[in-house]
Specification:
This protein has helices at 2-7, 12-23, 38-47, 107-110, 119-133, 152-163, 183-192, 206-212, 221-232, 254-264, 289-301, 333-338, and strands at 54-57, 66-71, 77-85, 88-92, 96-98, 113-116, 139-142, 175-179, 196-200, 240-246, 269-275, 305-308. The protein folds into two domains: 1-50, Orthogonal Bundle (DNA polymerase, domain 1); 52-309, Aldolase class I (TIM Barrel, Alpha-Beta Barrel). The two termini are 27 Å apart. A hairpin with a 2-residue loop joins strand 3 (77-85) and strand 4. The chain is α/β, with parallel strands linked by helices. Helix 5 (119-133) packs parallel to helix 6 and helix 7 (183-192) runs parallel beside helix 9 (221-232). The strands form two sheets. A ten-stranded mixed beta sheet has the order 1-2-3-4-7-8-9-10-11-12. Strands 5-6 form a two-stranded antiparallel ribbon. The relative contact order is 0.13. Bound molecules: S-adenosyl-L-homocysteine. The site of S-adenosyl-L-homocysteine has 15 residues, from strand 8 and strand 10.
């Protein structure tokens, strides 16, 4: 913003002021920015636009979860979810329209992939949630539609704005990026940002993970685990959050728990067990609650921190893996068949 205003022949501080007006005050009209000269205010609409995605509201869920369906300028739709819980308010933000990764238990994958979101479209979700909730969310998770690390540059810039003192001021410990494990992008992220890391593990060995998270064929566990360990090294407050969706009869036995314990040895870890949220045509079923609990207890006995994620917002299809937009699938049939090696991820 400073560079933009300098480019107009104006002053850098105007850039900071406009940035604050937009993100702190929620102002979208240049004329309301009263600490900016009339002349500059008149000039801005000719060279700039403050555009907010169009919101299609949903009824709040019984448990207070809310979902916003956002229509972007090209007619694509994405979803953002807000989850209030004991004084906290977490928002779940999307990074792409659809997703290219094809994990068979996720309904976003079903729609295919269309495009990356821009920085404005990512931070616009935080802007809308803050306005609608009347407060900045306490926690932000990049766990909505899409694979954030396949849209790394835009996601990093948006996450910087989330943390910026002139904008939302959310602490780095409360901004979390969730990834299926694109190792080269994870290594780059470590150099660019110090947000918190969650990884969709879902299986303790390559054989099973190749099926559940197909990108594993390209970046197997022996590459992923050390990259994650490196990510949290040097900060004692940091742990990797491992997301593990509990699928009935697939990955939920005590034997799987034992292999998982061995896999995570030496990595500061928190395991978050996610009850599977079914969707029409899903090829899996949720593990029974007592099996989830037995799995969790087995992890705890080994000294791991293990929690079970509360399923929220399922009556409005806002639960994990249920987010669906309106995607014109541009991922070709050939591309699908060649997966995962020739994935077009938008990274090099
Ligand atoms: N692509 C990123 C961000 C998506 S986050 C990633 O893979 O981490 C969404 C989280 O919900 C991931 O852990 C994902 O594996 C999980 N998830 C997807 N479908 C689900 C479903 N049907 N039930 C429960 N969790 C699901």
């Amino acid at each position: 913003m400073e560079a933009f205003f300098l480019g107009l022949g104006s002053k850098a501080f105007h850039g900071r002021n406009v940035f604050k007006w937009i993100h702190k005050q929620g102002v979208t009209d240049f004329d309301a920015m009263t600490d900016i000269s009339k002349r500059l205010r008149g000039q801005l609409p000719q060279v700039a636009e403050i555009a907010v995605p169009k919101t299609v509201f949903e009824q709040p869920a019984r448990d207070g979860t809310r979902k916003w369906i956002l229509e972007l300028q090209d007619g694509q739709r994405i979803e953002t979810v807000s989850i209030p819980d004991e004084g906290r308010n977490t928002i779940c933000v999307s990074s792409q329209v659809g997703c290219a990764l094809d994990c068979p238990f996720c309904s976003t994958a079903r729609q295919g992939f269309n495009r990356n979101l821009s920085v404005a479209e990512i931070i616009g979700q935080v802007w809308i949630a803050s306005r609608e909730l009347g407060a900045v969310p306490s926690n932000i998770v990049m766990m909505g539609m899409g694979e954030p690390l396949a849209n790394l540059d835009a996601v990093v810039t948006a996450m910087n704005i989330m943390q910026d003192d002139l904008a939302y001021m959310v602490s780095k410990y409360r901004v979390t990026v969730s990834t299926s494990g694109i190792v080269p992008a994870l290594n780059r992220l470590r150099e660019l940002s110090d947000v918190s890391l969650a990884v969709s593990l879902h299986a303790p060995d390559n054989g099973l993970r190749d099926k559940l998270v197909p990108i594993n064929r390209k970046y197997p566990l022996e590459a992923l685990i050390p990259a994650c360990r490196e990510f949290v090294r040097g900060d004692k407050r940091r742990k990797v959050t491992w997301e593990y969706v509990m699928l009935d009869g697939v990955n939920d036995s005590l034997q799987h728990a034992r292999v998982l314990i061995r896999l995570l040895e030496g990595t500061p870890s928190k395991v978050n067990l996610i009850p599977f949220n079914p969707f029409p045509g899903a090829p899996y079923q949720a593990s029974p609650a007592d099996r989830v609990e037995a799995f969790r207890q087995r992890l705890k006995r080994s000294g791991l921190i293990a929690t079970t994620r509360k399923t929220r917002g399922d009556d409005i299809d806002a639960a994990c893996g249920q987010l669906v937009g309106k995607v014109r699938d541009r991922s070709s049939r050939e591309l699908r068949q060649q997966r995962p090696d020739n994935l077009k991820l938008g990274i090099t």
